[in-house]
Predict the 3D structure of the following.
Amino acid sequence: MRLTCPACGAISSLDAMIEHQAAREALAAALCIDTRLGPLMMKYLALFRPAKTGLSMSRVAVLLGELMPMIHAAKITRNGTLYAAPREAWVIALEDILARRDSLSLPLKSHGYLLGILANQNQQANARAEKSTEQRRAGQTPVGTSAAHQAFKPEAPVERNPMAAAKAIADAKAIMKGNQHA
C-alpha cells in the first residue's frame, strides 16, 4: 500500500514507514501532540520540504525530536534566555508562522523563526505585566486612581464655639450615666 503524506507530499509504502525507525519515531511523536497542535505541527513541518524533493522521514524525525522536548517542557531557550512556552503559545506561534508562509524564505533550515516568535510573545507578555504592576504601584487602577494615592485635601476648619462644646460634653456625660434628658 502506497501512502502520500498530506503535509510534506512524501510517497512511501506503509511497510516502509513501519520498518523505518525514524519514521516510527516521527509518527509516534506526531500522535502524542494534542488535537489543536498536531495539525499545525504537520503544516509547519511542510515548511522544511525542499522545493524539488520530498521531506524525508529521517528529517521529520529530527525536526520533531527537536521540538517535542520543548513542547512537553513548556519552555524554550532562545539566545541564552529561558522563556515559558505553554501549549497555547505554541498554537499561536505556529498559526502566526503559517500565516506568514508566503513571506518566508523556504524551505526553513531551523526552528529559529518559530522560537523567535515564541520568545517575542513572552517578552510582550512580560512587558504588559510589568506595565500593569507599575500602574498599580502608581495607584492607577482600571477604574481610576485609588483613594490612597490621591492628593491630601485638608478639611475646612471647624468653627470653635465654647458654649456648643460645653453642651456637647454635658450631653455625652448624661448619655453615659443613662440619663438622656439632660
Notes: The CA atoms of residues 23 and 110 lie 19 Å apart.
